[in-house]
Structure formats: C-alpha cells, structure tokens
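Next comes a concrete protein, fold included:
___
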Amino acid sequence: MSVGRLIDRAMSRPQCNCTQAGAVKPIPAAYEHAMQAARLLVASYVRGLRNCGSVDWSDVDDAHYWALKATRASQRLIQKERAAARKAGHAAPRR
C-alpha cells in the first residue's frame, strides 16, 4: 500500500468519540480542509523525493490555501459558539 493511501486510511475520519460527555466535537469543514492540506503536503513531499529533493512551490501553495481555509472555518465555528453562549447568558467555552 502506498504512503498516500496509508495516510488517507488512517486519517479518513475524526479520531474522537463525540458521544462521550465532554468530548470535543469535530469541526467538519475545518477537518476536511485540514485533511486536504495534509494530503497535498504529503503528495508534494513524495513528488519531491522522486525529483531528487526538488519540491514544486505551487504544490506547497495549494496546501497553504487549504490550511488557511481550515483555520478560518474553525474560527467561524468558535465565534458562533461564543455568540450563542452570550445570547443564552453563559460563559463561552475557551479553546
């Protein structure tokens, strides 16, 4: 099995059990974007190894784009949770 397939298989779903009390809920959009960034970085690294250590910067740029999307998606969810907590009169959870 190739390295890429092993990584995809190992990281194909969130690694938390969200049914347990106090468990962290996965952030679907952020998770998917982060996984795409990870896949692109791994693929870029593997291609670089095949090209005698030369990494194509456009591959890294693509991974960076998806990493930024993951960061923004998680920030939006955290802001929504805080706003809902304020509206309900609770202290917002800190992450």
Observations:
- Residues 28-90 form one domain.
- Helices lie at 3-10, 28-50, 57-88.
- The first helix runs from residue 3 to 10.
